[in-house]
UniProtKB/TrEMBL annotation:
Tagged with keyword Nuclease: yes
Name this protein carries in UniProt: Exodeoxyribonuclease 7 large subunit
Gene: xseA
Its biological purpose: Bidirectionally degrades single-stranded DNA into large acid-insoluble oligonucleotides, which are then degraded further into small acid-soluble oligonucleotides.
HAMAP family documented for this protein: Exonuc_7_L
EC code: 3.1.11.6
Main location: cytoplasm
Membership in a protein family: Belongs to the XseA family.
Keywords, alphabetical: Cytoplasm, Exonuclease, Hydrolase, Nuclease
Example GO molecular function: exodeoxyribonuclease VII activity
Occurrences of domain Exonuclease VII large subunit C-terminal (ranges): 132-402
Ranges where the OB-fold nucleic acid binding domain occurs: 16-109
UniProt organism field: Donghicola eburneus
Amino acid sequence: MDLFEDEAPGGNAPEFTVSEVSGAVKRMIEGEFSHIRIRAEIGRVSFPRSGHVYLDLKDDKSVLASVIWKGVASRFPTRPEEGLEVIATGRLTTFPGQSKYQMVIEDMRPAGVGALMAMLEARKKKLEGEGLFDPARKRPLPYLPEIIGVVTSPSGAVIRDILHRLRDRFPRKVLIWPVAVQGEKCAPEVARAIEGFNRLTPGGAMPRPDVLIVARGGGSLEDLWGFNEEIVARAAAASDIPLISAVGHETDTTLIDFVSDRRAPTPTAAAEIAVPVRTDLMFALDDFAARLGRGLTRGLDLRGQRLRDLSRALPRPERLVEPARQRLDYASERLPAALRRSVDARRLRLSEAGGSLRPATLRRAIQTEADRTTKLAARLTPAQTRLSANRKDAFLARAARLRPEALSAEITRQTADLDRLTQRLADSHKRLSDKRAERLDAAGRLLETLSYRKTLERGYAVVRADSHVVTTKEAAQNAGAIEIEFADGRMRIGGAAKPAKKPKDSGPTQGSLF
């Protein structure tokens, strides 16, 4: 009762403002819980535009509101997802605006590999349900790509292994898109690299690859987690360019392996999948050429044998022409008599026709033809006049439709086109001549550089014997004459002389080198 009496109006109990009470509670909570670690399951997660992350940490009985500030969230290797079991490290504080307490998370990691695997299995089921793992949507790889795009770190051993294997098997052009292969930047950079390669225009200034390789070396599940992100899997599934995933070693499996068109156990194996072995192709080509040659030879031999077999069944050419030759002889024997009979018959018909002809008949025929010609001539003059008039009218009508201005404009335009084409021809000829002159000069400089005379200018010499180059001491000793070529000319030296016989006196004698 005394307590209530003290707290009665007008008592000695101090009065506090709301802000003072909130500040006291805030100082007490932050002082007692300035650094705590909590194992919990992530509940509701919110990603506002500010970049901060608001989430709930919960267990089977309680819920703790939490916040991850923007600068801290960008450093987390794993994106918070609902249902993921995590270990969060941070401090407790209060939010006076709503009279509640919350945890400010400074570090958060999955609670062991089991949590990551559970989240990975959930993602796999989600993407598989959307049909991204369907084998029917996987595209075949080009047999021999011209350009290969590689998405990997430019400083690791992976890109060196890929380039080395491509150089050994079949050298191809390689475009490298550098990305981070682990950490929080890995997933967005890999996704942007895949999308960037797909946005390239075929045949443009930067050529578009024919096949893509996404590669990374081995590592732990946390190191490879960037390739398990949903953004990477969807970018690989949406790629129009066939994609080979080569992430980790043979035992490592990531989400990109399921959506890619082909999975390689290692980055080196990805290069082997991308291109065939050049020497094997050359051997196969030689084998095909040999088989083709043998097939052609065998075919020609079979056809030749067939032709010879058929030729045996044909008669001899002399037998084929013998009947015709006999008919020709028979016809030649009958020809003179036939000619005589034909001449006699024609002579008889001529005599009969000549006997029926009379001068009066000829005059009447001539007069008839003359009269008919006179009538036709009288009709010809008016007809000719009418024809000339009609053609003149037609010509005048057609001439009236012609305009000299249109012809002049067309002539001017054609002249301008001719001048322009002539100028282009002259410019093209000049460029071609200049280009060929430059190529000739370059070839001349190259020839001068590769000439052995440049070697002579450095102090070397060429030794010849009997028009052949001497390369050994024994050949020089056996040569009859030696010619030495220096940079400034040639010098001929006689053959090696035999040692001179000593004179009878024992005095010293002078020898000769050559």
